[in-house]
Amino acid sequence: MQLTPEQRTIRDLAADVARKEIAPHVAAWDREHVFPRALYTKLNDAGLMGMLVPERHGGSAAGYVAYALAIEEISRVDAGTAVTLSVHSMICAAIDKLGTEAQKETWLPRLASGDAIAGFALTESDAGSDAARIRATATRDGDAYVLDGRKQWCSSGRFAAVVMAMFRTGGAGAGGISAFLVDPSTPGVRVERVTEKLGVHTSDTCDLAFEDARVNADALLGNEGMGFSGAMTALTRGRIGIAAQATGILGACLDASVKFASERQAFGKTIGAFEGISFKIARMATDLAAARLLVYEAASLADASEPFALAASEAKLFASTAARVHASEAVQIHGGYGYTTEFPVERYYRDAKITEIYEGTSEVQQIIIARSLLGKL
Questions:
Q1: How many angstroms separate the CA atoms of 210 and 184, rounded?
Q2: Picking from 31-35, 229-233, 305-309, which range would have the lowest pLDDT averaged per residue?
Q3: Where would I find the beta strands (DSSP E) of 220-310?
Q4: Residues 180 and 249 in one domain
Q5: Taking CA atoms, which of 16, 174, 191, 230 is between 20 and 30 Å from 129?
């Protein structure tokens, strides 16, 4: 794919900030589960916080291809930072598409500047892939809504200035769900639990409790009953970001594997001279190229305002599977060293798995792809 000069510039800026501002610290951040809040000011300085925000609201309106390129480059160094940026960008796009002018003017300049980070709250303890089952409620009370319920695995919940959260305002099913823009510092909103995760330790994940939390009626994003469709649209856009994240992890695995296989000696030669190792690397490189093309296709369709849901699902399914498979192979190539924290491939292995789960599991992606071909049989 031929990139524009702007897209190449954004890719190179993302690679530069990842190399200079993230790489020296990421091992310690991962080990200590640090959310590097100050880093996002530096990401803003590189123009990365407002890639999906219109210029009139302080963003760059760089588009989805540039966004995917930036996410990939950051993920090559730290997947946790990349997913925080991906979710932030997803919410920016949702506010731009669904928000009132007042909501856009309130939030988009702050989000584009990096002064504020956006989070997401959809999942509940018994409503994950089947998100239409959510039970948390928003009850209208004059010029306000009263929020009650609990949300699980909220992205950036402890550090976000605004969270796009889903609540039930009507009857059962998807049509009764509405989206709200909630400041987590609102009285009645509290962090109930911080989630300990296998990987992506530099991202923040927590459970949020809402207990008689009052928000103004203008916190409603879109109309009542539009929350489920808004969430699904946001997740569809987010799948481009997660596919790019998985592609970045895969790229990091390839870089590390080539370096190690070129240096490590066994039986009088470098281990890369053995087909058992070199063929693993060949398949890794091939799947990386394929994943990139799928991501670029989905992003290009989104930039062209063409239907991209199928392409996003295909990209996420393939890239996330490839990242998980080849992260395991990267550990294998490194042998005993790969199982230690002396080399980063163990982190890539831990980080890769989540790409098959969030923003829609691999099983959900296969349902979407199959239905596009077969319909709802």
A1: 9
A2: 229-233
A3: 220-221, 265-266, 269-270
A4: no
A5: 191
Domain final position from 85, 117, 149: 117
- In a shared domain, residues 263 and 360: yes
If one counts the domains in the chain, the total is 3
Tokens of 277: 């190792």
| Nearest-angstrom CA–CA distance, 25 and 22 | 6
- For residue 92, give both structure tokens: 């920016």
Task: Say which CATH number the domain at 301 has.
Answer: 1.20.140.10
Round to whole Å and give the CA distance between 120 and 238.
11
- Reply yes or no on whether the pLDDT at 175 is more than 70: yes
* Stretch 123-141: mean pLDDT: 92
Residue type, 19: R
How large is the greatest C-alpha to C-alpha distance in the chain, in angstroms?
79
Which residue is it, tokens 């003017």?
105
Tokens coding 253? 């695995």
**pTM recorded for the entire structure:** 0.96
359 part of the active site? yes
Q: Are residues 202 and 318 in the same domain?
A: no
Q: How many residues does the chain have?
A: 377
* Whole-number Å distance between alpha carbons of 294 and 275: 28
User: Which structural domain, as residue segments, surrounds residue 134?
Assistant: 119-225
Q: Which of 262, 286, 284, 260 is nearest to 273 (CA)?
A: 262
Tell me: do 110 and 124 sit in the same domain.
no
Q: Where is 76: in which H helix or E strand?
A: none
Q: What are phi and psi of 221, to 5 degrees?
A: -100, 110
Whether the Cβ atoms of residue 66 and residue 243 lie closer than 8 Å to each other: no
Q: What is the CATH number of the domain that holds 148?
A: 2.40.110.10
Per-residue pLDDT, 83: 98
pLDDT at 377: 63
Last residue of some domain: 198, 225, 252?
225
Indicate the residue type of 318.
F
- Options 55, 72, 359, 363, the catalytic residue: 359
